[in-house]
Amino acid sequence: MSLKEQDSCGCEGHAPPSVLEDDYIPSIVSQLAEGFTSKKWSSHIEPVPIPSKEEVVDLVLQAQRIMFPGYFSSTMLNPSSLEYHLGYNLTIFLRNLSRQLSSAIRHDCFRHNQPCSNCNARSHELAGRFIRGLPAIREALESDIQATLDGDPAARNADEVIFSYPGFFAVFVYRLAHALFTLGIPVLPRILSEYAYHRTAIDIHPGADIGESFFIDHGAGVVVGQTCVIGDRVRLYQGVTLGALSLPKGAGKKLRDIKRHPTIEDDVIIYANATILGGDTVVGARSIVGGNVWLTKSIGPDTKVLLKQPELVYIGKNE
Amino acid sequence: MSLKEQDSCGCEGHAPPSVLEDDYIPSIVSQLAEGFTSKKWSSHIEPVPIPSKEEVVDLVLQAQRIMFPGYFSSTMLNPSSLEYHLGYNLTIFLRNLSRQLSSAIRHDCFRHNQPCSNCNARSHELAGRFIRGLPAIREALESDIQATLDGDPAARNADEVIFSYPGFFAVFVYRLAHALFTLGIPVLPRILSEYAYHRTAIDIHPGADIGESFFIDHGAGVVVGQTCVIGDRVRLYQGVTLGALSLPKGAGKKLRDIKRHPTIEDDVIIYANATILGGDTVVGARSIVGGNVWLTKSIGPDTKVLLKQPELVYIGKNE
Amino acid sequence: MSLKEQDSCGCEGHAPPSVLEDDYIPSIVSQLAEGFTSKKWSSHIEPVPIPSKEEVVDLVLQAQRIMFPGYFSSTMLNPSSLEYHLGYNLTIFLRNLSRQLSSAIRHDCFRHNQPCSNCNARSHELAGRFIRGLPAIREALESDIQATLDGDPAARNADEVIFSYPGFFAVFVYRLAHALFTLGIPVLPRILSEYAYHRTAIDIHPGADIGESFFIDHGAGVVVGQTCVIGDRVRLYQGVTLGALSLPKGAGKKLRDIKRHPTIEDDVIIYANATILGGDTVVGARSIVGGNVWLTKSIGPDTKVLLKQPELVYIGKNE
């Protein structure tokens, strides 16, 4: 913006900012630098690379091109060009994934003061194992698309599901993140799940174990904790929490890796804003949990649990 | 990143990744290609274009420049330059909208095995009808801005509402998407509503029918279903669901296009996390629905319905 | 896309769109222009600049580079390059912040018909005061990181918190926005809080007053109102509302700047979807508010308040 434009605002006068006023910058820099180098504050001032959040997020778009050919790229595909498209995108994906894996692993070794050897080769091998799992992930995603079409009267066709269902997007990213989590990759799975959360307000921890034909409708506020086990053909609505029982202060380290989130068996439906808590809590197969229900103990199979309609108070001329 | 930098991490050795390890790529490509070409998995490997999600989302930014001149572009406007600004942006918008409409319509014809004729001319005509509706949409948006200023003590002026109210953004995109939905355009309305959801965690189906002066405060978790009918001057708070009653498995096709979401008459206020379900449920004019209320039957006009305060249990030295 | 590609869709014929069909554009432009210039509709057609939403949002990324060195930039840092990194980024940040502050202040003067003098110098001075506050903000953020690690068993290390905890991101942006709010800057704080909301579905008003070691877990749907006062070491879960009591229509202007949101003292934990309302409502130190509790009156310190487990109805063969 030119100075002239600025002057057209009718202000009485624009004193140019005094250069001397910036002389506090070096002191602020020192204060900040001191906090970081003295390790008072967390930072990553280290000679090893750290994953790039931006590039990890790009992997999601690349994976969309591979898993849903024709939807997320401008080139039109036909059966004869399909293998080129897949091969090209898979090669790029492999290279980028290897690089991020390598950063993640090396940074993790460094953080734990472990010497790491052959990180690049190891990353490449892990990336390969991930890629070999893609057909199985695609199979599961197809079952998720079908579950969405079966479960939502407003879903017209697979296009709409792939393009615009937040629940499906969250499950797509979860299936990628879970595969990385299972391979023992640090940091990357959480960056992926945060990205899905950012896009959908659905928070599925990559450690959760979820079966086929999974459908989350609407989805804002859904929380699926790290040690959840969820069977096949399960349907969740917005605001459902599958969480841990109340945690004491300082629970952080003590409870890590202990099963503290519920088990949901096959064919369960859980309606909006229901909360199910605790590692020993099981919802049996084909059961239905009503909206707003708060559950901290198991229910058997083929059961419907509803909130006893709380009393409503009417004021005014209700007819 | 140079190799030298990588080597500075203190690792014991970086074996270069073996090229041979990539030899699984062709087999994965074949497996994926087989899944897509055999139609086992959803894909868009077709000789017709499909809308570009990116460009549809760009339409929203272009529409912001037209509907809120001066806010979302870097050029400063004055009354004499305004018509140029509007004319220029409207022309771009028309061209881009036509192109996306054409892709959407042709893809839809192809999917239904219908020959389509004059798709380009038809798209252009529909885009024209959409654009002729913009002044009326702008009128409604002004009423929404005013409703926000009236309803939220924290809203200081129209700038804040236009720049930073998630509820207003969701309603803005809804009004565009609803106009497209009403014209019978496939896919695009859902891409728009998904984008609004991504930005706001508010899920308004483009099919819903919403009056003037609509205000959603905060808004995360709000769900407004496809067949809702909402009057003028209605206010919703975060977490409100206007949804369908419980759906059996396989409900997908059967219930499409049947009214299954509630009717909210003029001047109703619905507080946070209330849930109102069912196609026959009506909330009468000027009524108030309290926070957390769960409602599956109608209430008349001028009525206040509150949750009977559920009993609280106090443990410890409450004073 | 070439015409040839379009023709391959199998359509019966693509009549080129008639140019004449666009002749409604001038009339739509006039209608829109009339609405804006007659002040019927809100617009910013003024000779003074308005903050750029895009550049304000960029400030967040720049602040991340300063506050979390090594995490959000591709250059690797070591202790000797750190001061250069900080000094460089701080200088850029200062310049950009000054420019946005100047736009915000001048636009505000213009809106209130006040002549403003020395806006540039004033903006520069305010930017300086903001920057001098950064070390204290960084100190508070470190306490928030530690609170996250203490409170969430799934949080493995500071990397995960900084990279991928939505609650931490929302608190980070809040601490920046609150500092601007405290300096009396118009518009910018709300643009920042909207951006945080867009990313996290967590809505913290920049006016709220929040102590150290603040941790929001998951977070979708959390609302913290403008006049909240929150002590140190407080923990909130998803869906918690700290809001105002019901507002009459037209409350907008009347209630501005009156304390209408609750006070939460030190060491309080508030579980998922609890709602606490009202400016006189105080939750005493070390108290615990259970999930789904709805609270409109104060509770003392060291108290646990739980929802009396609402009766559940079981249908079917629960065992």
TrEMBL record, chains A, B, C:
KW Glycoprotein (keyword) present: no
Upper lineage: Bacteria, Pseudomonadati, Thermodesulfobacteriota, Desulfobulbia, Desulfobulbales
Sample GO molecular function, one term: serine O-acetyltransferase activity
Enzyme Commission code: 2.3.1.30
Highest taxon in the source lineage: Bacteria
Name of the top EC class for this enzyme: transferase
UniProt keyword list: Acyltransferase, Amino-acid biosynthesis, Transferase
Keyword Transferase: yes
BP GO terms, sorted: cysteine biosynthetic process
Protein name: Serine O-acetyltransferase
